[in-house]
Amino acid sequence: MCGIVAYVGNKEAYPILIKGLQRLAYRGYDSAGIAIGNGDLHIYKKKGKVQNLNEYAKDIVESGTIGVAHTRWATHGEPNDVNAHPHTSTNGRLAIVHNGIIENYAPIKKELIKRGHSFESDTDTEVLIHLIEEIQKIEKVPIEEAVRLALHSVVGAYAIVVISQDEPDKLVAARKSSPLVIGLGEDEFLVASDATPIVEYTKNVIYLNDEEIAVVDRKKGLSIKNIENQEVTPYVQELEIQLEKLEKGGYEHFMLKEIHEQDNSIIDCLRGRLLPQDGIISMSGFTEIEKRLVNAKRLIFVACGTSWHAGLVGEYLFEDLARIPVEVEYASEFRYRNPVINEDDVIIAISQSGETADTLAAIRLAKEKGATVFGIVNVVGSTIARESHVGAYTHAGPEIGVASTKAFTTQLTVLTMMALKLAKKRNTISNEQYQSYIQALTNIPQLLKDTLKVEEKIKYIADEFKDVHNFLYLGRGYNFPIALEGALKLKEISYIHAEGYPAAEMKHGPIALIDEQMPVVVMATNESAYEKIISNIQEVKARKGRIIAITTHKDQIIQDIADYVISIPETLEALMPLLSVVPLQLLAYHIAVLRDCNVDQPRNLAKSVTVE
Ligand code: G6P
Predict the structure, then answer these.
(1) pLDDT (tens digit, 9 = 90+) per residue, 340-365?
(2) Which residue's alpha carbon is at the smallest distance from atom 4 of ligand 1?
(3) Which residue's CA is the nearest one to ligand 1's atom 15?
(4) Nearest in space to 382 (alpha carbons), one of 190, 262, 208
């Protein structure tokens, strides 16, 4: 969380930085700020979104060809103008933007106060720039050396960029646990939290590694050292992001665009892997650790948020098809409860951003214990992708809306392919079953496209329910994680309280909440538990709850007993989540729009959660 962008070159820095911040706004949008260098440092900061900053600064901003910028997701100190980044040193000659948390900021601050420093903000970041200033004053070293020495005293996570009035051609960037990418343009450099602000200027990038410090100097070029002061040879990579994928393309919101892109993102995810003509699934990451996967005693999924829900679907898939025990762990809990991890465990980390701090920490722990880590990640080159032993990209393309949609369905697609491959290798499904799954998976993009046709009906239902205070989502089997995901989507973007529950578990608690006010979304697409779901629906109806049922076109019974029916195409039960989540995404979206909520940037959330 928090987005950083910085520029040094020959162009005006401000427009590049503002545009970059707009691209990174999904990472946090409590406040934003910019420092422009032109001999002096000029700082502009505003509470609220990047747009607020731009309205305030655009007519008064000084000209300059070097600068740093930041969009904030508050950790230390409320979102206001003062706590917004950049933060400056006492003499105002240094400024910093920071993503992460300096955990030991309090003792450092105390010491600095003793030495005469005073602080304006409540942030941990301001302490770091004062520490750098203090070290520079005492050691009389260039700014990059002061940064390096300061970082030795710091506990926590950081991606930082520092700018100095006294060294006006250079920026100093460093990272530990929070991402930073350096773009190498012609006579110019960009530094950013991800590649999206960089892609229109250059395709050549370097992903900084933990505890590396980079200097980008418009006269001397790039140099990287590690925190121990050893030179590092940079590894330049080429970006594959398409610029148009970063635009809304005619849709009102990124989230709606991304919901509608899902048929194509699944095609991209399947491309080169699902080969129906040969009757095979080809996945190089899988093949690389095939023996370990086949012989693993169990699989452990670690993830957060929507990716955790994908992991839950994964549990059903792998246990059902490949008959291998699976545990699904919240990454945030995993390492704090002294988990039992064995060398023959395979850890499957699922993450859209590839930067989620808790998921990253979980895989580092698993690696320490000797387990093999397989990463299912969307953002190419991200930290989890690089730190996993092997993996598979989801190829969903950039996902900008904070509420995850197409990343989820592509995660499910990868998990399905992996479960099928493993089932085949472990001989837990017959060849005919395997082939029928391959065929069904081939048909999913078209079926998903057909599923999107429910949108008009959903708009109508959204209008009926936009003012309620609570929602319940019920599902069984493969649809239980989808009920959780539907509830999460609604909470995230419409701020309506919603709970997902296993349908049969309802009678152990949530049934007490049901009255004529309570909408209950029932996932009723499972063939195997169809009658049982009908009983659950009757239980809700007997208490006057209002049923919104998601059924398949095959349904004959539920359409007569539910208050509202959303009928979607049918596929094999194990693949149904790929379709059944779509109406829930649309329902959350349309309710949020009718409630006038900021769909793409819901309050208090950020897309990439790089703090614990
Ligand atoms: C945040 C986002 C969610 C996402 C979760 C995990 O909470 O708002 O949409 O599911 O982080 O993120 P990851 O990038 O690891 O999938």
Answers:
(1) 999 999 999 999 999 999 999 999 99
(2) 305
(3) 351
(4) 208
